[in-house]
Structures are given as C-alpha cells and as structure tokens.
C-alpha cells in the first residue's frame, strides 16, 4: 500500500508539470504578432503615418550582393507589425508616394533608353522579393508600383 501511495504522489506531481508545460506551449504558439521595433541594422529611408498606422521604408545592405528595401506597416497604438514586404533595392530605391485606404502607392526611377520621360506600371513580381512574392493573395494591402523614368 505504501508503494501505491508513493506512485500516486509522483504521478500527481508530474501531471502538474506536464499541464504547466502544455499551457506554456499553447501561450507560445498563440503569440503570432511581432512588435514593431526599428531594427538597428537597417537605414530608415522614409516614414509616413496615417490613421494610426505607420509606413516605413528601410534599406538593408547585403554586402557585395547589393541590398533590399523593406516596407514595414505597423499599427502605432498596438505596436504591432501588420505587414512587411521586401523589394528590390540595388541601384534604384523605391519611394513611398501615398496610402489610400488599403492601397499603397510606391515608385522607382529606373532610367529609360529613350529621352522621353514616361510613367509606367511596374509588375508586382518584378519588384517584390521573398514571401510577399509567393503569398501575394495573403497580403492585407494592395501595392501599386510605378516607374517614373527621368530624361
């Protein structure tokens, strides 16, 4: 009888630890929101705020491979990252023009062979990199890219 009581105590203690461990695991898995903190390894290019949201463009150098530009959309009040996309940032950097509703307008200034200045649409696929390119339908914002070619 003494052995049975000892085993029961051990099971009760271990079941508490297992329950606590399962609870912590659930809490860890439920945390899906990233906080919106400026990253020190990136240079801020442009910032824009509208309707409690901040839109920031960062340049991230990647050594000999050039760099990328990261657009981070954050909810200011909740300090939560809403969306983040990476874009081409080698020789010509994008600029944030405006945000209207859920549409973000950006432009590049890629040079043209002709001497005529022209505004052209840029395909999403030709500008965006990484996960945003693969999961375009999952993005919360629509992105309109233009090329404003200089003479």
Describe this protein with a few key phrases.
single chain, 151 residues, alpha+beta, 5-stranded antiparallel sheet, 4-stranded mixed sheet, 3 helices, 25% helix, elongated
Any overview of this molecule?
The strands form two sheets. The chain has a five-stranded antiparallel sheet with strand order 1-2-3-4-8. The protein has a four-stranded mixed sheet with strand order 5-6-9-7. It has helices at residues 2-30, 124-127, 131-134; strands at 43-50, 53-61, 67-75, 80-88, 95-100, 103-108, 119-122, 128-129, 142-148. Helix content is 25%, strand content 40%. It is an alpha+beta fold. β2 and β3 (67-75) form a beta hairpin. Residues 25-32 have low confidence and may be disordered. The protein has three helices and nine strands.
Task: Summarize the amount of helix as a percent range.
Answer: 10-25%
Report the uncertain regions.
25-32
Number of helices: 3
Span from first to last CA?
Answer: 94 Å
Question: Secondary structure elements and their pairing?
Answer:
Layout: H1 2-30, E1 43-50, E2 53-61, E3 67-75, E4 80-88, E5 95-100, E6 103-108, E7 119-122, H2 124-127, E8 128-129, H3 131-134, E9 142-148
Parallel strand pairs: 6-9
Antiparallel strand pairs: 1-2, 2-3, 3-4, 4-8, 5-6, 7-9
Brief rundown of the structure:
The chain has three helices and nine strands. It is an alpha+beta fold and 151 residues long.
